[in-house]
Every structure is written in C-alpha cells, then in structure tokens.
Amino acid sequence: MSAKKYLVTGGAGYVGSVVAAHLLEAGHAVTVLDDLSTGFRAGVPEGAEFIEGRIQDAAQWLDPSYDAVLHFAASSQVGESVAKPEKYWENNVGGSMALLAAMRSAGVRTLVFSSTAATYGEPVSTPITETDPTSPTSPYGATKLAVDHMIGAECVAHGLAAVSLRYFNVAGAYAARSGATAGERHDPESHLIPLVLQVALGTRPSISVYGDDYPTPDGTCVRDYIHVADLAEAHLRALDAATGGEHLICNLGNGNGFSVREVIETVRKVTGHPIPEVMAARRDGDPAVLVASADTAHRRLGWSPSRADLTGIVADAWAFARDKNQGTTSEGEPG
C-alpha cells in the first residue's frame, strides 16, 4: 500500500497499539484517539500523533485528510457488561454511532472494526464460521453485534467500505522496531495466559481450572489462541481488501484449539515454574470448545497466521510479563 493517513481509535491499548505500530512501520501516518480510561499514554507508539478524547466527539478531529479509520475503542469486560449494561450500550454502540456520523460528514469511507467471537454466543458447530447464528450471551457481545449491524446498514445506505474482524483469544506480545513492547495488562485480568503467568511471577498463588469434565480430550475447555502480531497483520490486509458498499466479516483465529491444561503445561515449560492448580466448578456459559474457521480471512484477505505455535505465543507473553513486573514496559489495554 502507498503511504496513507489513518485514525486509530483505542490505539493506546493492547491490540490498538500493536496495529498502530504495524501501520507506522509500513510507512503510514497514524493518529491515535483514546480517552485513556483503560489504555495507557505510554502505549501510543512512537511516531503517532495522539489525541486524548472520546469517540463520541470524533467529529472534532476527523477530517477529509484521513484515508480510513481502524476502530478499537470499546468497553470489553464481559462480566462488567452484565453488571453495567448501560455503560456498554453508551460506549460501544453510542460511541460507534457517533464515529460513523463523523466519518460520513468528513467523507472518510473506509472502516476496519474490532469485533469479537462473543457475537456468536454458544457455538452450534465447530469450527465457527461467519455464517453461523449470532446469539451473544452478554451485553458486551450484544453491543458488538449491534455495531456490526450498524456498519452493514451504513455500507448499504452510504457506500461505506468496511471489514469487521471477529477475534477469538488474542495473546502474546509484540516488540516494535522502536524497541517498545506491547502485551496484555487488563485490570481486572480475566484472560487465561496472563493469569497463569501471574502465578509464575509469584503475584498469584495458583490458577483455577473451572471444570475438568467437558467432552474434550483432557476434560478442560478448548480455546483458539491468536498471536497479537498476526492479528495486526490481518488489519493491514483488511484495509486493502475493503470495498465500497460491502461489509465483509472475517473470523480471526488459528483454526485449532488448546485446552486449559495444555496452556498451563506450556507455561510450566516456558517459565520453569510448577504452576499449582486449584479445581473449581464449571462457570455458567463456558462452552466446551471455541475454535474459529478463518477460511474467509484466508480467501478474502490473503491472511494466514504465522505464529500459531502455543509455545511461541506464551514465550512472547512471558517476556512482556517479566518486563512489566520489573517496571520496564508500560503498554496496555484498548481504550
């Protein structure tokens, strides 16, 4: 792609900052818009312009000089969305509606949207395809699905070129050419790999295993993990693939899964820590298997993950976790 100018909403966070770094490394101009409610100022990649603000006010900054928007800004904690659904409808749906209006007014006609596998809810088949039913089980998933519907209507009515990328389990860390690193740093933390790494760091005594009687090879839940750098590369390809009047939806995953016990064992091997386990009851709404079919991304984006090895994903996440624990890095979660 020739050099272009992009607005990255939520670009002070985990995925957004890694995508912004990839855009900069490809020679593009990047402006990050983030309210820093969950992201970190130090997470904005070197070379990006930074605007501290809310997507609800995007019309103040978006102008015809931008070629496209990459939209990551969202509230993203499933449990919190159940307790505070109004926050999720306001931030995720209201904010996205304001962003689409700002894009329409400025004549910016290309969008890549950070969607989620949570739009599917309980899977009806494995691997999950984009044509499977969408039936989210949380307000978080419901708001992301609502934005997908909103984007689809915008494409039909106003010729928007849009790609929604539905992530499965994003993991790992990315070391940019600048020397900065970005990895997971949620508060509260809810993702398995960083939780197990907290045990290895000594900041958590053990890891809870929620159920070992699922219909899987070792009885624990199976999930599809994708390296954050592979994810970022898919976003750059999505910009090139976006077509006026079309809303393309692509799952992003490795296409195979790893069980909870496999993840724990891999962390043991990478860190050399024994990782004590504590058995706990199943959690409501935890499907046995969540694995993506990424055939559409392979076909339409020309994308395939190149970092699918679980050991490599965990090793990158471990390097970031150790640095963060020692206070030498400061990047984090989407704004």
Can you give me a brief rundown of this structure?
The protein has 335 residues and is an alpha/beta fold. The protein has helices at residues 14-25, 78-83, 85-106, 139-158, 192-201, 228-241, 260-271, 295-301, 310-325; strands at 5-9, 29-34, 49-52, 68-71, 110-116, 161-167, 169-171, 174-175, 181-182, 207-210, 222-223, 225-227, 247-252, 258-259, 277-280, 289-290.
Describe the structure.
The protein has 335 residues and is α/β, with parallel strands linked by helices. 36% of the residues lie in helices and 19% in strands. The protein has nine helices and 16 strands. It has helices at 14-25, 78-83, 85-106, 139-158, 192-201, 228-241, 260-271, 295-301, 310-325; strands spanning 5-9, 29-34, 49-52, 68-71, 110-116, 161-167, 169-171, 174-175, 181-182, 207-210, 222-223, 225-227, 247-252, 258-259, 277-280, 289-290.
Helix content: 25-40%
Q: Specify the number of helices.
A: 9
Radius of gyration: 19 Å
Elements, N to C (H/E): EHEEEHHEHEEEEHEEEHEEHEEHH
Low-pLDDT ranges = 328-335
What general outline do the C-alpha atoms trace? globular
Question: Which structural traits does this protein have?
Answer:
alpha/beta; 36% helix; 9 helices; 335 residues; three-stranded mixed beta sheet; globular; 16 strands; disordered C terminus; seven-stranded parallel beta sheet
